[in-house]
């Protein structure tokens, strides 16, 4: 028999206390150095701003989809009145709250667009072609894909995400003080319509941020693909953050092996879901074989030795789907914290590789939608992409520390805290 | 522990009744779990707990090992996945297999074999899910020794509340630690509110006679369906067949060799969708069959002649045009091409090609020219009869043993198949180039060895040869 734990946090410290003060400048320094190195190395390529922006966008989209995934987790947690994950919900709330500062990180992409740079999004140009010129079709798309309307939409997305995250985070923080169960009810009620708004913003933001890199291409499955990867990375980052906080003693026995077990189950589920969606998107296009759809995959499956994208796609198939399925299947593995630390980092790296696969092939797209011959068609450059990713992760850690500050990392007075602390997998 | 339920001893059921277990009732899940826990500590291993709902921690308390079911499910799921792929690969990507031939068809232009795996994945996925669901469901049955037709526990009326509001711990009599009196005392100590004995009736294990008879009758009854099927096989039946899915049998569609859509209600002034009223469309000009792709540059192989094309009068004659004239080489308006005298190098002159040619010949040529090439095919005989009555216009199918045909070079025969002659239509769209050459080769073989038509004057050496 296991004694039931009372629904109280017993650890003396469940916050970053003062260490966030040290972490913020550290993260910013890493960010400045990383981005500086990446930009310096981009000077050697044919179009510095374009090369740097592409690398930047890959990490930005990886991090943003991760934050949105956390926002989804918080929303669905409230929507289903879940009890098991109360103690890990706060970490998700903090990361979801980082969505709003992420808007500042989008500025290096957004501002050049308003000055007429079509380096990242080809439709910024007045007469973009993207493969076969089709005047009527392009003018039709211009009604949606134009800089002003894009800017308005971006402001709207980040405002909506920021407000939603803040309303959850704020109510949850208020509850730490007042212990008012009505706040939970309020969050549960509002989660209903917030979920619908979240779905709509995810759909359109994925169109805008990544699908419009190839303005002629369209796939209604793409937002689901974006979402699936984002939620998978969200569960990975929640697991990783919990493990790191627990290792450094910021959170002690509030997050038990049962919570990790459930997070790992969700990671496994979303690995499968990601694969399911990725294949659904691919197979419909592959089977229908319509030229206006296939080119996007054709350049990612290029068979020639000069483009490595075929191997990058296979890397995703094995590294993002088949290996994690087998690796996360066993119960003993899901309950092993050392193993999960490795698995969550691995899945986050794979998430980044996934976005690299979505974004980077557009860099060298020629007029006929084939990747033009280049010395390094795969584009991956250790000295540009890796420092850029490390730098942005550094900045993201700073943002996390600013948002978390010395606030509690576990809800202190949630009505379902007792349920969560005593949660056990059968 | 003082309570009203005295452990009432059931009347022994005679020497043929065996004590299976002691069943103790508990009033709440917590006391059940603690009793289980204590029983395990006392050394009991063979025991089971019964509860109306899942009780957390009971597995640990009784010491149940984690189930092996997940491994069975994984194994069966992998088998299902593999089976789905092998089946699809075998059926769709093999043509000549030892077991049974597959259907090696290109569907929607998708590649066969491993390259076409995306088309196979949905079935692989579904079969993986289905087989794991079955493995989980039936595996659970097997691991739980289900289905069981009778359980001695069901004889205890008190035990029925195990599905409602009472909790039971069963100590099995086979356990090493089991001692009826001591165990009973222990159960009382652990808080049992009632204790029952569970007896297995061992009086008579024999199966009743009626059951055996019924089993034999059933076995014979099972033979009936195959016997009926065997009897019905190949038997003509006067009634029309049953149409289970009628819309699959009578579809609203235009069939081959029929007239296409007509938009006019006036039968005298029809208005067809296409200029040519046929329902079937011809292939687009310059269409090349998949098998022939890449061959269009080998002109001699594709055309059957060197250099210049023959004049229009010879090739591609429509039905009834220049009937019976073009076979005569002496006609002045006919400009013959420089026909190939030998088979082109792309064609292997061997038994295999002739066998292929025979197979194709019997599909495409025999309806008119007959199996032995004498021009006595069923279509020809019927058409000749209609022609005699003035009901059809028909040029008699040529005997391939006619000296005029025998003297033709191979390229000329190839051209006849390609473009048709007189009533004979062109076969270039139906028969790939290589197969046309194979047919020519078979025709040559027929001419060398086949029965000669009675009127033909042939050297005696050739008439002596037996037909193939």
Description:
- The complex is a heterodimer of chains A (426) and B (468).
- Chain A has one domain.
- Chain A has 15 helices and no strands.
- Chain A has helices at 19-42, 48-79, 86-97, 99-114, 135-142, 147-178, 181-209, 222-247, 257-288, 291-298, 309-327, 331-334, 337-359, 385-404, 417-421.
- In chain A, helix 7 (181-209) crosses helix 8 (222-247).
- Chain B is an alpha+beta fold and 468 residues long.
- A 4-stranded antiparallel beta sheet of chain B has the order 2-3-1-4.
- Chain B starts with 16 loop residues before the first strand and ends in a 5-residue tail after the last helix.
- Chains A and B meet through helix 9 of A and helix 1 and helix 4 of B.
Give a brief description.
Chain A is mostly helical.
Assembly level: heterodimer
Counting H and I runs of at least 4 residues, what is the number of helices of chain B? 15
Helix residue percentage of chain B: 25-40%
Number of domains of chain B: 3
Task: Based on the model shown, name its key terms.
heterodimer; A: 426 residues; mainly alpha; 15 helices; globular; B: 468 residues; alpha+beta; Cytochrome Bc1 Complex, Chain D, domain 2; four-stranded antiparallel β-sheet; two-stranded antiparallel sheet; 6 strands; 38% helix; disordered N terminus; disordered C terminus
Topology (elements, then pairings):
The complex is a heterodimer of chains A (426) and B (468).
Chain A: H1 19-42, H2 48-79, H3 86-97, H4 99-114, H5 135-142, H6 147-178, H7 181-209, H8 222-247, H9 257-288, H10 291-298, H11 309-327, H12 331-334, H13 337-359, H14 385-404, H15 417-421
Helix pairs in contact in A: 1-2, 1-14, 2-3, 2-4, 2-6, 2-7, 2-8, 2-13, 2-14, 3-6, 4-6, 6-7, 7-8, 8-9, 8-13, 9-11, 11-13
Chain B: E1 17-26, H1 29-41, E2 47-50, H2 58-62, H3 69-93, H4 117-143, E3 167-172, H5 180-189, E4 194-201, H6 209-232, H7 246-249, H8 299-303, E5 305-306, E6 338-339, H9 351-364, H10 366-369, H11 378-388, H12 403-406, H13 410-419, H14 433-449, H15 460-463
Antiparallel strand pairs in B: 1-3, 1-4, 2-3, 5-6
Helix pairs in contact in B: 3-4, 9-14, 13-14
